[in-house]
Amino acid sequence: MVKYICKRLLTLIPVLFIVSVLVFGMVHLMPGDPARLIAGDLATEEDIERVRVNYGFDKPLPEQYLNYMNNVLHGDFGISTRTKRPVAQELAVRFPKTLQLALTATLVAAMIGVGIGILSASMRYSILDNISMFIALIGLSIPPFYLGLMLILIFCVNLGWLPISSDSVFTALLLPVVTVSARSMAVIARMTRSSMLEVMN
Q1: Alpha-carbon dihedral 134, 140, 143, 148, rounded to 10 degrees
Q2: CA-CA-CA-CA torsion for 52, 57, 58, 60, nearest 10 degrees?
């Protein structure tokens, strides 16, 4: 098991390298001057040049990439152009909520997905089986970003059952967990049903 994990981690290194090169390249291929965008519309040429020097945009692209990777490997992700705060600090503020959402969604998807799969397999070809597999198919087909918007529109705007934002952990997590876990739940339900039917046969 340890050997397998080590191999997977080693294969992750070239993937991360390729992704970093692609992201870095796409940012520089975008139209417009990033220094001018950061400085703002009212900035003078001197201000823009100062921003260009501060962010290292005046250096060759290979040197910019090496500096970027060196900073990332040392935990320095730069300064946010929107909040003017360190990106690492912004990530640290948001990471606990993201982790809470991810863990809750994974747990919900596993529990409900396995439960639906077992129920469908034990009552195969029944109305309940057909309905649950149809709902699973819908869960696989709807993109999460669209599902999230539709849930907000239906339950928050039209019905008014849930607030769009809330301090309560339950109401704040309910719709995001459903949105994030829907696809995984559908996959787990279908896989559980297929595996259980194979064993039963």
Answers
A1: 60
A2: 180
Which pLDDT tens digit goes with each residue over 121-138? 888 888 888 888 888 888
Helices (H), the chain: 2-29, 34-39, 45-54, 61-73, 87-122, 127-141, 144-151, 169-200
* Full-model pTM: 0.66
Helix, strand or coil, per DSSP, at residue 187: helix
First to last CA, the chain: 31
State yes or no: pLDDT of 145 exceeds 80.
Answer: yes
Q: In this structure, are residues 116 and 133 in contact, taking their beta carbons and an 8 Å threshold? A: no
Residue 83 has pLDDT above 80, yes or no: no
DSSP 86: B
Phi then psi for residue 101, to 5 deg, are -65, -45
Q: How far apart are CA 61 and CA 65, in angstroms?
A: 6
**Of 120, 137, 174, nearest to 152 (Cα)?**
174
Q: How far, in whole angstroms, is CA 175 from its chain's centroid?
A: 15
